[in-house]
Amino acid sequence: MLNVPSQSFPGSSSQQRVSSGGRSKVPLKQGRSLMDWIRLTKSGKDLTGLKGRLIEVTEEELKKHNKRDDCWICIRGFVYNVSPYMEYHPGGEEELMRAAGSDGTDLFDQVHRWVNYESMLKECLVGRMAVKPAVPKGMLPKSQVTDPLAKEGPSSPSYDWFQTDALVTIVIYTKQKDINLDSVIADHRDDSFRAETVIKDYSYLIHIALSHEIQEDFSVRVVENVGKIEIVLKKKENTSWKCLGHPLENHNSLIPKKDTGLYYRKCQLISKEDVTHDTKLFCLMLPPSTHLQVPTGQHVYFKLTITGTEIVKPYTPVSGSLFSEFKEPVLPNNKYIYFLIKIYPAGLFTPELDHLQIGDYVSVSNPEGNFKISQFQELEDLFLLAAGTGFTPMVKVLSYALTNIPSLRKVKLMFFNKTEDDIIWRSQLEKLAFKDKRFDLEFVLSAPTSEWNGKRGYISPALLSEFLKRSLDTSKVLICICGPVPFTEQGMKLLHDLNFSKDEIHSFTA
After folding, report:
1. Mean pLDDT of the chain
2. Strand 279-285, strand 336-342: pairing
3. Tens-digit pLDDT profile for residues 5-47
4. Are strands 336-342 and 410-417 parallel, antiparallel or unpaired?
5. What is the structure's pLDDT at 139?
6. In whole angstroms, how far apart are CA 400 and each of 139, 182, 197, 257, 333?
């Protein structure tokens, strides 16, 4: 009997939203929206062509199904007939056909690991890939015997634990010097405790079914100069523990971060405020049993169940305001995460998000993204190009740069919108530009009123060549760009035409 995959988030490789490239969406025909697809999957129509049977699929069989009207794709060991989905796929038929009749796991992960394909394609499930015969011991090629981690990855951390009458302290020795509170994500759920430490492109996991009950809240401390992490748990009863607990999946392992999957916790909606006519500031509270701080330039995923299907979307956290981070540092036990989200009335996801009441919950994932704070080292000029809600990753990038980079001479933001009413946090941006002389601000509108005296139009060589002037000829520069796909793709092309190098550009792409 074949096991149908669960509807949990897929757990493997990723090149996700924040990358130097992106994919274009293609215009879909009328009646081919995500909601239309969900309706079709619930109509009872046979989408596999197998009348409800699940089969084991050999590699030879998979290869036969490689045509537009007969297209099978394997993802993580499960085979799906994606022919019915072709017209509904936002990336277009060509992208799906790249994996026709083959294992499409790597292609899928490169573009959108966060999409919950298991839920979206469950009615298209043909079956499981047939297991290959085991290779006799001693017959493996050398390349498969050697541990690639030993060559490429960081040295594996270790952990220990000790206790007092009231406390249990887990100590993780990372053997790294650039570990901070952002590097640690910890969750206590029921009797299990999970702590993930991000070390470069790897994750070190402590995952234990605790031997005794603990209180909800715990504390995390990092000794940065030696790379030591201390997680202090509070016992519910003052009894002596004989052991910390029993190991769970991937406990005490160091694995590539792209292979760890995403872990979700339920966060409570605390407030929701209008920012513009169609954009709102959502404040979510983490559970007391979670430690999570989203690093600058990274994002998380929201997961909602809509008409029985799990839908996942990426969002970049912002500060509560542009000035909150200029007063005092954020406390390590800060439990609030803010998001600026544009509500699309005809959309599927954001109206559901907007319908949430104060006190309701939304599932929020671990952070992801490839923006590195090291890109700020010795930075002198920072240029930010944002369109619409592409402004969101710029909020923390801007705050961090002005607060923490002593070499910084100039930060410039060019913010593209349709009308004045669309400009997010306009008064805060103008106030910040007034208060900090290193910060310059330009608004560009594509559909302004006749009273508008500022710049007009779309991203162009003329606008960029004037805007991207270094404070010195030799200044170290970083350009960050984010917005709708056409804006970002056009901007990237123009930046390359203006001879900025790959290392000088970071693109946040949806």
Report:
1. 86
2. antiparallel
3. 333 333 333 333 333 334 455 666 777 888 888 888 888 888 8
4. unpaired
5. 41
6. 53, 14, 22, 25, 19
d(CA 124, CA 52): 10
SS3 state of residue 342:
strand
Q: Which residue has the higher pLDDT, 449 or 133?
A: 449
Pull the structure tokens for residue 274.
């209008």
pLDDT band of residue 113 (cuts 50, 70, 90) is low
Contact 342, 351 (CB under 8 A): no
Euclidean distance between CA atoms 85 and 120, whole angstroms: 10
Give the C-alpha separation, 143 to 393, whole Å.
40
pLDDT single digits (tens) 154-213: 788 999 999 999 999 999 999 888 899 999 999 999 889 999 999 988 999 999 999 999
**Burial (CB count <10 Å: 0-12, 13-18, 19+), residue 19:** middle
CB 482 within 8 A of CB 471: no
Question: DSSP string covering 162-222, please?
Answer: EE-SSEEEEEEE---SS--GGGEEEEEETTEEEEEEEETTEEEEEEEEESS-EEEEEEEEE
Chain-centre distance for alpha carbon 296 = 12
296 is written with which tokens?
Answer: 């600058």
CA distances from 301 to 56, 263, 459 (A): 33, 10, 29
How far CA 357 is from CA of 53, 270, 283, 433, in Å, comes to: 42, 9, 12, 35
pLDDT for residue 106 is more than 80 = yes
Alpha carbons 364 and 263: distance in angstroms, whole number: 8
Task: Between 9 and 268, name the one with better pLDDT.
Answer: 268
Q: Is 290 exposed, middle or buried (0-12, 13-18, 19+ CB in 10 A)?
A: buried
The neighbouring-strand residues paired with 162 are 169
Nearest alpha-carbon partner for 482 in 370, 388, 401: 388
Contact 100, 65 (CB under 8 A): yes
As given in the structure block, the two tokens for residue 201 are: 């492109």
* Interatomic CA distance for residues 363 and 152, integer angstroms: 34
388 pLDDT band (50/70/90 cuts)? very high
Return the residue matching tokens 């409800």: 52
Sign of CA dihedral 136, 137, 142, 147: positive
- pTM here is 0.77
**Which tokens sit at 485?**
């796909």
Q: Tell me if 298 sits within 8 A of 373, measured CB to CB.
A: no
Q: Which residues pair with 171 in a beta bridge?
A: 160, 230
Cα(43)–Cα(41) distance, integer angstroms = 6
Q: Which tokens sit at 293?
A: 């701080």
Residues 4, 6, 10, 12: what is their CA dihedral angle, to the nearest 10 degrees? -70
